[in-house]
Amino acid sequence: MAEMVCAGFMETRAADEEIQKICDEVKCQVEEKRNEAYAVFNAVQYKSQVLQGVNYVIKVHVGGCSYLDLRVWKKLTCHGGEAIVTGMEDHHDKDPIQPFQCDHTLFFCCSLSPSCCLMTCAKRKKMQ
């Protein structure tokens, strides 16, 4: 079992059934944001960070030699458990996944550390 790092991302792991389920849940969000439909949308690997829910960076194979790195925030079950895409990057192949900037603010929201995102920007946006 991987060691838990408080507010930091855990080591990269191979995607499992749970991660694929999250990808299936957010596929429509990705297709809408990218204005593209994907026949292939398979989770390959991921990193996770437990912080007010779980932040994931997930590498997704979308067909051929194409991959997307998704940043997904999965709310706590007591808050509905919804998965929300908070960022994505393309032009990735099998390179190692890394946490990346948030699409909402273009910097790491409310954080002095690039490994810590409190999702404050997404919460603010939802309240507007």
Give a written overview of the molecule.
The chain has 128 residues and is an alpha+beta fold. It has helices at residues 17-34, 120-127, and strands at residues 13-14, 42-50, 54-61, 67-74, 83-92. Residues 104-117 and 122-128 have low confidence and may be disordered. The protein has a single domain (13-127), classed as Nuclear Transport Factor 2, Chain: A (Roll). The chain is globular, with a radius of gyration of 14 Å. It contains two helices and five strands, in the order βαββββα. The longest helix has 18 residues, at 17-34.
Q: What is shown here, in short?
A:
Helix content is 20%, strand content 29%. The chain contains two helices and five strands.
Notable features of this structure?
128 residues; alpha+beta; Nuclear Transport Factor 2, Chain: A; five-stranded antiparallel beta sheet; Cystatin-B
